[in-house]
Amino acid sequence: MNVLLKSATIIDSKSDFHNQTVDILIENGVISQISKAIKNSKNIKEIHLDNLHVSQGWFDSSVSFGEPGYEERETIENGLRTAALSGFTSVALNPNTNPVIDCNADVSFIKSKAKKHAVSLYPIGSLTKEGKGIDLAELFDMKQAGAIAFGDYKTSIDNPNLLKIALQYASNFDGLVLSFPQENKISGKGVMNEEFTSTSLGLKGIPNMAEELQVARDLFLLEYTEGKLHIPTISTAKSVELIRAAKQKKLNVSCSVAIHNLILTDEALTTFNTNCKVLPPLRTQKDIDTLIEGLKDGTIDMVTSDHNPMDIEHKKIEFDLAAYGTIGLESAFGILNTHFSTKKTIDFLTRGKNRFGINTHEIAIGNKADLSLFNPNGSQTFTKENIKSTSKNAIFENHETKGQVYGIVSNNKLVLN
Amino acid sequence: MSELSVNHLLGIKYLNKKDIELIFETADHFKEVINRPIKKVPSLRDITIANLFFENSTRTKLSFELAEKRLSADVINFSASQSSVKKGETLIDTVNNILSMKVDMVVMRHPNPGASVFLSQHVDASIINAGDGAHEHPTQALLDSYSIRERLGEVKGKNVVIVGDILHSRVALSNIYALKLQGANVMVCGPKTLLPKHIDKLGVKVETNLQKALNWCDVANMLRVQNERMDISYFPSTREYTQQFGVNKALLDSLDKEITIMHPGPINRGVEITSDVADSKQAIILDQVQNGVAVRMAVIYLLASKIKQ
Asked: ipTM above 0.90?
């Protein structure tokens, strides 16, 4: 693929062209020239887009599609298309499938489905066989097939000894272990944050402590094992403090936060809107303020949309019975860019790749073109029209968003809205 | 003519003070009607009401049915345990099937909090919440306040303690909202395991000593322990619960003043309340039941008049 991006403002603090508006010539998927007003002597396809901005390709560390087993929620094909049109060039795929991805063949299946796509798909293998939390899955073998990390998605590892062994075992081959932060006996039958709102709605609450106990436990196990741990989607102020202290002690820990947990409080549930039923649950403004602080000071390594397409049959029902999860790829940029500066938004969206062993590509001549294309200005309301996913369970439906995603250049392909 | 600010009765928290006053004034009229030799009025002759009970109920269901019949509405009843609905049909489909037979109003009891709110968002009928999980039971709270007003003249300024299993109680939540709206002072009392951690944020006092609570109050509303909603034991034994949170005659006699005792039923005699208290003149438990019919007639009548428009 050869393409000439005309008049693009580069947002990449690592690049020599940061904040410059230039033409970018891409030949065979590689950036061959960056300068003002490149002459198009080879008659290469030119891209002219209003107020075009370009950054390193965005990465999402927690995405679910559903294939195999839940194709009615989302397929890999349409999921990747959604990611591309939402500006993401790399996504880590949760084993949120049926059967779960817990062996070499499963990982290979996912990889083969994503081959030749503009978006790079990185499977996360299940930590335990069938995701049951009893015996370790063949982690090394899955890594050979391309799994970048291992975790049981939103199923907590109840048995601390199992996590101890997993952290020890995976450290043999520098494997990254994911542990979902929720102590299930404390969360009980809770379906939302335990606070004023849950009390007023009569819904069972999940106290912050359910998360913090698990985070504290996991950090103890990490200190003992000297393994490599990633805690996906934290949601409470105290979790930030615990992880901050662990990082000061040089423990090998990272964590992420879901974008909706950064923006929305549990008050969003007052109409029993099941699209706001997410795990970890939406918390309070105090938690949000501390999460943002943690994200800015690097305690929290990355943001994620925690994209989880869910069919309407699991959402248009009574709140207690509805499934958890929201889609988020489509709204990720527009929501972040509304609540943070564009500079911060791009910083958040490009973090975390290294932790998962994924190469980054600065915007420089001779480097692979791994680019997200967007316009940081202009506002619009996020509606069903903006949803590319098969499922329409969007927590940010009817929210105002700022900016517009044009598409991506990645894997020698150009995808535009 | 005055009318309600809402098209459904989903919970007390969706009402305003004027709504409650209007319901009580209308209930005064119907209370007079149901004590006449001819207890029926033709007000709702062209209205059809479906009583959908997805959870067991005896008193509430009978009370609603009687209220509907006294207003001359056509009534159909549907009872199903949640499990039979789970065989496949969704709540919306079940209700829409019934509505397609030209039903104007739905009275629903359901085990899940927010079920009536959810239904009101998706079907075209006036909805009355007859209890949804641990969320709200608005007609119970209305009849409780109505009964306090009847016994003590007014609700405003009265000290009301709700005793027992607050954690699993829709009656408690609706009562808190209703009493606060009318200017009463509200306290909850029970073992800490059965008090929601953040209940004080609803503007109520919290007390774990029953003697202190009773000394403070004008009215004690004794709730039943909802064993069927508990996933684990919240106290070691009924015996211990009664020792700490059961009201008996000796306890009442030890107080400085004569307080009013209420109970939404069904009573567990000897557990939260002894027989001599339940049957005493301080208790207005059977008045509550009678007022339930009048208050429900008022609610149905007022909502139906909005449908007619």
From this structure: yes
